[in-house]
């Protein structure tokens, strides 16, 4: 997400007047820091969902005690309890099951509250646009769990490498493509069945950034302009 902050994410937050933000997957907290500074400037709040954050949570709370809320659990456990957020950044477990059901929970919140948030999803392109990755395979129901291994990937090759390759320390699905496989597939499946009127946009660099917003012609034109000017 960090690569998109200045040219895409921040302008979108400003256009939509975002004040209440949810971040799924914070890792080292670098993008979290940007979000917290934004929240301080607009008198907003940030709810961070990550079962194992890799930053000093107490220090972030000391620096941003009004803006920062840390929720250390899986996203599918936390999202049913969050309401009326204006934007959500999804950069957690990059697999079909998790992302699809995160989107369904966002849809349920929006249907109840009458407002669909700005949704930003990382990894809509290679390597995880069409391939599942599991941080915690045991958390995925067996029916949705693809065969997987801690082996690396190579662009343009479906099967995993025996040695080396990208992200070889993570649990990657053995093959690309197919049903219920990957972040972009989850987004497309959600868009096919949601009754809500939404638009989908993408930036294609840095593993891809998907953007789902309430459908509005003028806003869609603004987003396309931002993406075009960003060069990302």
TrEMBL record:
It comes from Paenibacillus apiarius. Keywords: Methyltransferase, Transferase. Pfam families: Methyltransf_24 (PF13578). One of its GO terms (molecular function) is methyltransferase activity. This is Class I SAM-dependent methyltransferase. Transmembrane segments: none annotated. GO terms for biological process: methylation. The keyword Nucleotide-binding does not apply. The lineage of its organism: Bacteria, Bacillati, Bacillota, Bacilli, Bacillales. InterPro entries: SAM-dependent_MTases_sf (IPR029063).
């Amino acid at each position: 997400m960090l690569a998109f902050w200045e040219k895409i994410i921040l302008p979108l937050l400003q256009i939509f007047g975002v004040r209440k933000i949810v971040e799924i997957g914070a890792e080292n907290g670098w993008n979290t820091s940007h979000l917290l500074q934004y929240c301080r400037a607009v008198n907003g709040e940030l709810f961070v969902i990550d079962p194992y954050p890799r930053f000093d949570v107490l220090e972030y709370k000391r620096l941003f005690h009004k803006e920062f809320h840390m929720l250390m659990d899986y996203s599918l456990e936390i999202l049913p309890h969050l309401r009326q957020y204006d934007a959500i950044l999804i950069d957690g477990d990059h697999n079909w099951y998790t992302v699809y059901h995160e989107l369904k929970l966002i849809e349920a919140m929006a249907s109840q509250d009458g407002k669909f948030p700005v949704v930003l999803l990382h990894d809509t392109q290679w390597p995880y646009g069409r391939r599942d990755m599991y941080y915690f395979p045991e958390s995925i129901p067996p029916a949705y769990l693809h065969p997987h291994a801690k082996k690396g990937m190579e662009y343009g090759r479906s099967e995993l490498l025996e040695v080396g390759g990208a992200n070889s320390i993570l649990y990657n699905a053995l093959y690309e493509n197919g049903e219920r496989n990957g972040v972009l597939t989850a987004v497309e499946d959600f868009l096919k069945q949601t009754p809500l009127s939404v638009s989908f946009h993408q930036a294609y660099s840095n593993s891809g950034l998907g953007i789902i917003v309430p459908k509005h012609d003028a806003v869609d034109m603004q987003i396309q302009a931002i993406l075009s000017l960003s060069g990302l």
